[in-house]
Amino acid sequence: MPTTTGRRHAKLHQLALDTDAAAGPLSQAARRSLTEVLDTRLHTLVSRFGVDGARLAAQGQRAAINRIAAFIEMRSIDCDFQRVPGFLFAETPDGVRTLEADADAAQRIGLPALFTRDVPLPFPVFQALRFEQQAQFQPRAYLHALCDGLDCYGSHVFEETHVTAVEDGQPCRVITDRGVITASDVIVAAHVPISNVVLVHTKLAAYRTYVVAVADAKANLEGLYWDTADPYHYIRQHVVDGTPYLIVGGHDHKVGENDDTTVPFHRLEEYTLAHFGQRVAPTDYRWSGQIIEAADGLPYVGRNALSSHTYVATGYAGNGITSGTLAAMVISDEIRGVANDWRTLLDATRIKPLAAARAFISENVDFPRHLIGDRLAQIIQTTDANDIPSGEGAVLSTKGGKLAVYRNGAGELSALSPVCTHLGCLVHWNTTQKSWDCPCHGSRFDPMGHVLNGPAVTPLEAKPLPSDLDDERVPSPMAPDPLV
Ligand code: FES
After folding, report:
1. Going by C-beta distance under 8 Å and a sequence separation of 6 or more, which residues neighbour residue 123?
2. Mean pLDDT across the chain, nearest whole number?
């Protein structure tokens, strides 16, 4: 049964780190937003971290934007960087109450925010909060330029190299599928850390987020827009070769908790049609990505628990670029023994049972539920291999137990253990991404079980097809594999 709900405080995503290849070039080139307004609502930050903590959190995002701007200027990086306003808008009276709470919090922490009805959207809104001097840019162009400069500092980029373990020590050892790298300090900045099995993961929740982009010659949106709705929406514009594209995103749900991942795309398309009169055509773009939420709403950054020289940075939610930049500032200072204003606030080992109890429970109760419940319950997406079309997969029940079964473009079936190699939850099939996704901590595997993203580091176990599998389909050797 679908359990799609929007993320509670979501706003707009700076970068979907595992954006899929089928998304087309726009997903790679599109500008992303940089904002000091975190996904966690301002009034929630104040209630959890106090006025000083919330102020520090917002200042951290501002410092990160300024750091990025300084890099761009210093290296003359051509990445379409622009300062733009951001609008948090409400279309309902309930939404206005959220705005009022955030406006009050913004004032208390000294974040400039202006109540306004003057919102340059082509549909009416009740009210909005306007934040000045936010920004947007093309992250790929920016990151390429940063990587190009790395060699000057004696650093190296190892592409196509899979890290399977990190051993803390003096020196630390990074075990990869192509050899061992030693280093005095290691930062695991892998979306979800692979360097410990449990400690950080129980404080994280993985969400899948969706985007559609439609060519709209009339679009003239300057700025960043996100709403107070649940599920939420964000809107921005990107121009490719003179053609403006309207980008509409949102409708997040927890990973593995939506049986039909085409539905969020349909909802975004309906929203785009209702609000902009634009129908998303097959030639337009859609993509999705995965984001990681922290239990108390702020990233976990710093020395890993039980480690001396291993550091983690995770839980960025939709603020990956700014939070990632801030994490680099915090950890590099920590390694060099330099004081840093955000070190204590973001400490990766923090546990705030009072401040974050509700979020902690609502996010992480899913781990034991999926670990035990999925195994006991009949969560089988289909019971008959005949129901699996080409290019699709499903978890089936057989006499030997549950199997993750995939049918390729030639009609041939293959089977895997559905047990996630991280901590043993059962994976679910994601039809839009063509992947096996784990609902517990967001590991993803391709149809043949290879790891797409951690924390799992080993593939799903291949299994023989059982003799009792009900499959009367005649394979078609001529049909192309949709994954090729
Ligand atoms: S990602 Fe942790 S059990 Fe699958």
Report:
1. 275, 276
2. 82
**Rounded Cα gap, residues 264 and 150, in angstroms:** 39
Between the CA of 241 and the centroid of ligand 1 the distance, in Å, is: 42
Q: What is the pLDDT of residue 29?
A: 57
Cβ-count burial of 323 within 10 angstroms (0-12 exposed, 13-18 middle, 19+ buried)? buried
Index of the ligand 1 atom closest to the CA of residue 456? 1
Give the position of tokens 């599109």: 30
Residue whose CA is closest, atom 1 of ligand 1?
A: 441
- HSE-CB at 431 with a 13 A cutoff on CA atoms is 16
CA distances in angstroms from 120 to 116, 141, 235, 271, listed in the order given: 11, 28, 12, 17
CA of 311 to the centre of ligand 1 (A): 20
- pLDDT: which is higher, 23 or 384: 384
Does the Cβ of 423 fall within 6 Å of ligand 1? yes
Q: Would you state the structure tokens that stand for residue 126, as one six-digit string?
A: 């009740």
Which protein residue's CA is at the shortest distance from atom 3 of ligand 1? 423
Residue-wise pLDDT tens digits, 448-472: 999 998 888 899 999 988 776 665 5
- The answer to whether residue 32 scores a pLDDT higher than 50 is yes
Atom 2 (ligand 1): residue with closest C-alpha? 441
CA of 442, closest atom in ligand 1: 1
